Amino acid sequence: MNYNLIVQAKYISTQSLKQLAILSSAHEIQAVSQQVFRLMGANPDSHTAVADFCHVAALDFGFVPSTRQPGNFGLVVMDMDSTLISIECIDEIADMVGVKPQVAQITEAAMRGEIDFSESLTRRVALLAGLDESALQRVYDERLQLSPGAEKMLGMLKQHNIRTLLVSGGFTFFTERLQTRLGLDYTAANTLEIVAGKLSGRVLGKIVDAQAKTDHLNRIRAELGLTPEQVIAMGDGANDLKMMAEAGVSIAYHAKPVVQTQASYALNFSGLDAVLPLLGTP
């Protein structure tokens, strides 16, 4: 199989491209845009050398089969917090009651895989007990921002009739609003219990953990009649690893090291629109 090496960053020097062409044995350099270059006929056996060079040069890269096209895919599954959006919603909710440091510490440990996700979520939500439900809308209005390139990525996926599933260990309050705002096809997340207008400190129903994310991916994939190879999954934390393992292509977006080492591709320096060149040539 022939491969192209996709190189992406805000700025890529000509010298870096020439060096990468040498390292990867590519025979031609094509400019896709000022931030994206395609090195034709690259040897994937050079992955380690290319990865080392790109790490130092702050470049994102990926070896992409030359025959791959966006039409090969039918579903993109994505995490929400710190992937589709730039914040961790629960940390920002916690800031409303002055417990953000405590909650953020648990969040980080869970993302690194040091604490079971369900346990971590239960502990974090308990710290929110008594908060007025209006705080959720404040977080959405005042703090929630899409990750750079999100809308461009979603627009291209729609253009190629690729369905989207937003599956989150976060909360339905945010996934449902993002679904309406962005035209996402499917969403799944946790529901915060609210009693008399205040958060009770509990989650309703079964927690959407790593296994639940995987189950949602496989359920939607089966409904759409797709093979695993037709699915792309992206995330940033240990809670995303199981679902990413079920996809033909997995993308670690500004992710923890444990996720980067197990993903098909890692994007550390670019926005979500950097997903597009990894799907092949339109």
Structural account:
The strands form two sheets. Strands 8-7-6-5-9-10-11 form a seven-stranded mixed β-sheet, sandwiched between helices. Strands 2-3-1-4 form a four-stranded antiparallel β-sheet, covered by helices on one side. The model has no long low-confidence stretch (mean pLDDT 96). The longest helix has 15 residues, at 210-224. The chain is α/β, with parallel strands linked by helices and 282 residues long. The protein starts with a strand and ends in a 15-residue tail after the last strand. Helix 10 links the parallel strand 9 and strand 10. Helix 4 runs antiparallel to helix 5 (117-126). The protein contains eleven helices and eleven strands. It has a domain at 1-67: ACT domain (Alpha-Beta Plaits).
In short:
The protein has helices spanning 14-24, 47-57, 89-95, 100-111, 117-126, 134-142, 150-159, 172-182, 210-224, 241-245, 257-260, and strands at residues 3-8, 28-31, 36-42, 60-65, 75-78, 163-171, 186-195, 198-204, 231-235, 249-253, 265-267. The chain is of the alpha/beta class and 282 residues long. It has a domain at 1-67: Alpha-Beta Plaits.
